[in-house]
Amino acid sequence: MSARAQLAGARRLVVKVGSALVTDNGAGLSLAFIADIARQIAQLHESGREVLLVSSGAIAAGMQRLGWTTRPKSVHDLQAAAAVGQMGLAQAYESTFARHGLKVAQILLTHDDLSDRKRYLNARSTLQALLAHSVVPVINENDTVVTDEIKFGDNDTLGALVANLVEADALILLTDQAGLYTADPRRDPTATLIGEGRADDDRYLAMAGGAGSGISRGGMITKVRAAQRAARSGAHTAIASGREADALLRLARGEAIGTLLHTSATPLSARKQWLADHLQLAGSLWLDEGACAALRAGRSLLPVGVRTVEGNFERGAAVACRALDGSELARGLINYSSSEARRIAGRPTSDIEALLGYIDDEVLIHRDNLVWTGEG
Question: Given this model, what pLDDT does residue 375 score?
């Protein structure tokens, strides 16, 4: 079955709409677009699909309400804009979905909600309960309180994290561009639209290079990275223009519009998926060639293969495993704190008890708590 056909058969969809669409390029909330996307989601809902909506636009909407014409640089001003704009955004979605007899729920997430295992599972349970009650979750980053998300985050990444969280069949990224091109079409007239490709093809990262607009914080490169992340849980990703008539419905029918980046990987288990989705790690372990080969072969990490321990962390923290050139190979949950890991690094397992006075585990990271994130 083709990837487009699989998209047509997708039962659970995560749909992300960008700031340029939701705010009409920063002019203020586009009630016409919000009404149109609600109509399309309602039609999908009637056909038995489950849809989770990830919506940008809070900061841009707040800027318009506050009379600001350029995006501020101050974190506190960004938080203020998000707080003001989120009110209007929630009201707009609630009223437009109500016309179709659908209830919506506002979900504001931070990285901490998805990096802490207990909060991750709570968020997952809440979203699943909402879907079971035929409620459409409207999800955004909690930009009003979290500085890292405003500075580094984007809702393309959030969309991929949500797709993994709820094990969605597909991620649909609606933007103001027709899809992914071989080069920036605004600068290169020979650029051509990529209709379909593999999400793990790193050539697309180079093609997508470049920042987003002054209103959005993403750009095409964040969409390619989101597709790679969503592919870990077996979700295909479609990137298309939200300004095309019935774009969402056409994509959901398997129509060949925009760009489809499909996955061919076996979905990761829920636990390893959660590990792979950590955007912030507590530290890093720098490994010799033997340890790198062991991880590549799917084995546990022993202390003897660790050259350097970087960071300060407690037992059970998520850490990166790096080759000596600095490239990340894997990440996992470590069995010892940073101070303990430094004391046993480079030493055989038989020395752990003598060095620490006790032994909790013979390995630094067990293979069941490791997920490969490197190439090959």
Answer: 64
Confidence of residue 153 (pLDDT cuts 50, 70, 90): low
Query: How far from 309 is each of 182, 187, 322, CA to CA, in Å?
Result: 40, 44, 10
Q: Find the helix or strand (DSSP H, E) in which 309 lies.
A: strand 306-310
The full DSSP string for 65-128 is HHT--S----HHHHHHHHHHHHHHHHHHHHHHHHTTT-EEEEEEE-HHHHHSHHHHHHHHHHHH
Query: Do residues 22 and 182 make contact, with C-beta atoms less than 8 angstroms apart?
Result: no
Q: Give the residue among 237, 201, 217 at the shortest CA–CA distance from 73.
A: 217
Report whether 141 contacts 109 (CB < 8 A): yes
List domains and CATH numbers for the chain: 3-272 (3.40.1160.10), 281-372 (2.30.130.10)
Q: Which pTM value belongs to this model?
A: 0.83
Q: What is the pLDDT of residues 50-70, one digit of tens each?
A: 999 999 888 888 888 898 988
How far is Cα 333 from Cα 187, in angstroms, rounded to an integer?
44
Tell me the C-alpha distance between 141 and 161, whole Å.
11
Q: What percent of the chain has pLDDT over 70?
A: 94
Q: Is the dihedral of CA 153, 191, 203, 247 positive or negative?
A: positive
C-alpha 273 chain-centroid distance: 11
| Per-residue pLDDT tens digits for 98-137 | 999 999 999 999 887 887 888 888 999 999 999 999 999 9
Would you call 5 helix, strand, or coil by DSSP? helix
Interatomic CA distance for residues 179 and 53, integer angstroms: 19
Q: Which residues contact 212 (CB under 8 A, 6 or more apart)?
A: 154, 218, 219, 222
Task: Report which DSSP code applies to 351.
Answer: G
Give the whole-angstrom CA distance, residue 35 versus residue 372. 42
**Whole-angstrom Cα distance, residue 342 to residue 80?**
43
**Contact predicate 315/260, CB 8 Å:** no
pLDDT at res. 1: 66
